[in-house]
Model the fold of this input.
Amino acid sequence: MDVPEANTDAAPVAMALEDGCSTGAIELRRFEGQLYRSLGIMSEDLTRYSKSYAFDTRNDVFGSLAHEALRYYFTVRFDSIDRMKPVPSSVAMRDNQFLIEGDAAAKIFRMGRDFTVTQKDLARAAELERKARDQLGRFLVIDGAVWFLAFELVYSATAPDGTKPGTVSIADSASHYADPYAPHTVRHPSWSDPRTRFFSALSADAAAEYAGVRLDDFPMIEVLETESVAGDFEAMELKRCGRNVMSEFDGAVSSPRLQKLRMALFQLLDESGRPDWSPDALADVLAELSASASGVSTRMR
Done:
């Protein structure tokens, strides 16, 4: 597929971060209302890059596609009658993540040439192709270099612990993001920590105050275009709370009333990627859950 191209005039720097690393500043450029971050390669290297990282679920661009493809690959591999087909040692599942390393990507692609799509799998194959095109559609070439669709930079702050101050670090709003096909999956440990708070790039003072530290104690996000700060942090926090509650339901003894609210919560989180989604209904369900949680575990309350 064709990757759109632009120049630096059409894609100005919207956010920047100088974190003291030898790689220099991190820049986010805005193009047609979306933010992009440099991939560090030229356009002629894009094919090699996408082939090497297509099955690495830690990759920002291919993660959700990799989970789907490798989950199916391993299911077929271990459930099939032919159990002697070799699986490269560098294709593995580690820390609940599928990943691929080194030259194994090329071997998987060579093995893939032997696969055929049967009539009953045509619909699934078309869906995987659509997902692949969605993933590749995240690329943008700016003056010959490849950039990819990115999330805005945010501050992540931890609360003080007694006399020990908290910390403020730089994250991105992917900390609030869940794959639309798995909306209840916790992607980052900080997401699950109720004492961690996230602040927009324009709220450094609030992040420092929450952590009890000085502004000089952490890198500052430079915002060159205020319109690039677009995250709805109230909605993000409601989603985070909802996902934390969902994760607690598995180990909690709950009443029929709570189970009914659980289903309502599940549906609201499942629909949270729709453009017409409103956090108001989610706030109402969470309030009802809070009022109904007496007699449940302390963590659930």
